[in-house]
Amino acid sequence: MKYDSQFVDRVLERFHKSFNRSAHRWCEFSHDGLRAQAYRSTIYQKLYVLRYFPAYYLEYCILASLLKRRLGDAYSSVQIASFGCGVCPDFHALKANLEGLDFDYIGYDSCQWSTRKLIALEESDSLGFQHVHIKSLTPVDLDEVDVFIFPKSISDLGQTGGLEHLAETIAATEKHRVFFLNSFVYGGGDRDDSDLRRFDIIHAALERKGFITLDDRETTHIGRKGMGRGRSLRAITHDYAYPQAHFITCARKGSKAECQGCNVVKYPVVTNNFMGFQLLEYNRLSPARDLGWWR
Ligand SMILES: C[S@@+](CC[C@H](N)C(=O)[O-])C[C@H]1O[C@@H](n2cnc3c(N)ncnc32)[C@H](O)[C@@H]1O
């Protein structure tokens, strides 16, 4: 698994600089949680990236390296679709870990995420972004896709609607072998497993079309084998390091009533507490048949 720490440092540096320029507006966001409408604000997007990008990028790097291993020599190129992609940290993780494999990536998001432009792309990067709600996707949009990604997004997709439609759209594929890179918020064990249950919708639609998976879809992973919750991300890869210079510090800290429980001046994610990932491979056993009509 490759974690490109220099790339992450560059991302943090640019977002930190840009976020600092709006310090006079931070209090407006001091009590905003992760709400769908919040993503529309560029200030909130920057705050989100500063808090979550390095940790989520690491998780997607692990998933991308698992994918690389699973694909083996069977593919020379793959098409990848990511739903609720945000600033596309998963694209950059794939880029670092799919060496030697051509891939085209399209990220779909109902929010524009204009701060994506703060992350420099190279000319050879095959990254497409479509500003759409998943409800408007049709089978033609996804019929070439080999790998589907839910990057910390399935709970949002479930809440904002359209997951059933997306499930049917994915399952309408003509492909016989497809992969899912699922990155849930928690998931599995005695923790909140609502994201796992949301994926049941996709699984059921695939099953109706004759797909099966031999992977364990009830299990999510949180880093190295045998690792418990609350472990430092550095224990997963020594390359992970969040430079202190990019922590958010506020000159007004403690001077106002709103400072209590402030959501801006907060530690970024540095442990595996938010991790929960799995790679699922589905193969079609029989020719496409939709069992739904006679049930
Ligand atoms: C928690 S963010 C994850 C962002 C990104 N994947 C990451 O790893 O940082 C969830 C994303 O899902 C998007 N989203 C929510 N509902 C959606 C929908 N119905 N269709 C498309 N995107 C949606 C939001 O705009 C948001 O960008």
CATH superfamily: Vaccinia Virus protein VP39
Look at the helices and sheets and give the structural class. alpha/beta
Bound molecules: S-adenosylmethionine
Give the CA-CA distance, first to last residue. Answer: 45 Å
Outline? globular
Sheet with the most strands, sense and barrel status: 7 strands, mixed
Count the strands? 7
> Helical proportion?
25-40%
Low-confidence stretches: none
Give the overall average pLDDT.
92
Number of domains: 1
Adjacency order of strands in the biggest sheet: 3-2-1-4-5-7-6
Beta-strand portion reads: 5-15%
Radius of gyration: 19 Å
**CATH architecture call:** 3-Layer(aba) Sandwich
The CATH C-level name is Alpha Beta
The ordered H/E elements are HHEHEEHEHHEHEE
Question: How is this fold's topology laid out?
Answer:
Elements: H1 5-20, H2 42-71, E1 77-83, H3 89-97, E2 102-109, E3 127-131, H4 139-142, E4 147-151, H5 154-160, H6 163-171, E5 177-183, H7 194-208, E6 211-213, E7 277-284
Parallel strand pairs: 1-2, 1-4, 2-3, 4-5
Antiparallel strand pairs: 5-7, 6-7
Bound molecules: S-adenosylmethionine.
In short:
With 295 residues, this protein is of the alpha/beta class.
